[in-house]
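hey can u run this one w/ zinc ion bound, need the structure tokens asap thx
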Amino acid sequence: MLNFSFYNPTKILFGQNQIAKISKEISPEARILLTCGGGSIKHNGVYDQVLAALAGRTVLEFSGIEPNPTYETLMEAVRVVREQRIDFLLAVGGGSVIDGTKFIAAAAPFTGEPWDILAKRAPITQAIPLGTVLTLPATGSEMNSGSVVTRRATQDKLAFMHPLVYPRFSVLDPTVTLTLPPRQVGNGVVDAFTHIMEQYLTYPVNAPVQDRFAEGLLLTLIEEGPKALATPEDVAVRANVMWCATLALNGLIGAGVPGDWATHMIGHEITALHGLDHAQTLAIILPAMMNVKRDRKRAKLLQYAARVWEINSGSEDERIDAAIERTRAFFESLGVRTYLRDYGIGAEAVPALLAQLERHQMTALGEHQDIDLATSRRILEQALAA
Ligand code: NZQ
Ligand code: ZN
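ok here u go:
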């Protein structure tokens, strides 16, 4: 196992009726800004539950944080935070609202140009404290220190991480996910699955705890994910999917093992240029990545085939082929298509995607930093169509 330091300060309030407890987590004097997306929380009762829990508190509101949150929108919220002297941010929504709120938290007290936090990794020294009420299990943002923001004007989708933007608390009430459209349920399972794969599918470092954790989470998503679509009213299923997605990217399974975030980095460029949902890009890139990197990932691919899909017969390459096909079929069974052509994107799009990767210094990706632009080209070409 590799050396690591592990830190995660986010308090999780899990289960039904936990929204009612948030007032205990926020100082009574706080001037709170509730941040949210395009309106889902106003139709499914979550907004009313949050306001009831914060009765008597000073609560302002900023709505309209879009999927793949934009710098342009978030800077409007930064102005509100500064003008209204906000000292607590409450993000109510999916990964986009939470990520956007983390950026607001870091940008509001920042003295320079806040875009530099993303583009130049400018150091931040303070952030407004934040809490979250999660409505879409997928990103893990509710219990991690990452945030991904898009600048619409320049089509840059960039990430930053900082311990100051860990949520102070996150409410995980699975009942609030019952109103998710099937597309977002499928997306969430694919995103969480890919997060686990990117911390698991590298090379062995004698870390059986992390491997068994990762395999357990993958198997849980394989078992519970389809149930969330087939029996959408089943709260127990939603609870399992929700906790799985949080554990997939809260730092635990990635501590002490190598990571390969190339699928995400290439995927972000597809969203930046073509507007696909985050998880759609992962469903496209991950199978192609597994195939192109089969030699250097061979040992873990065979372990994945055997332990997750029970594929034990055939040559090594046949087992790897079968594992890749099972992964692709799993994503497709969740309603998430796995080729660029399925989204109307053809070979003519590849050069611009490679140019984006180059512009963002994404030219040495993967656990061995050996995914250069030529390798990314092969991955994108394989991802075009069957
Ligand atoms: O905007 P509203 O009206 O709230 O509707 C949202 C949105 O349209 C809707 N939704 C959310 N909860 C709902 C609901 N609809 C009905 N009922 C509910 N309970 O779902 C739509 C998508 O929401 P969004 O927040 O965009 O989805 P997701 O959670 O998948 O977040 C995706 C973003 O997270 C980033 C992605 O890049 C993308 O920008 N990521 C963040 C990560 C992190 N912070 O660690 C890691 C991830 O890999 C990812 O990159
Ligand atoms: Zn993701």
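The radius of gyration is 20 Å. anyway lmk if its weird
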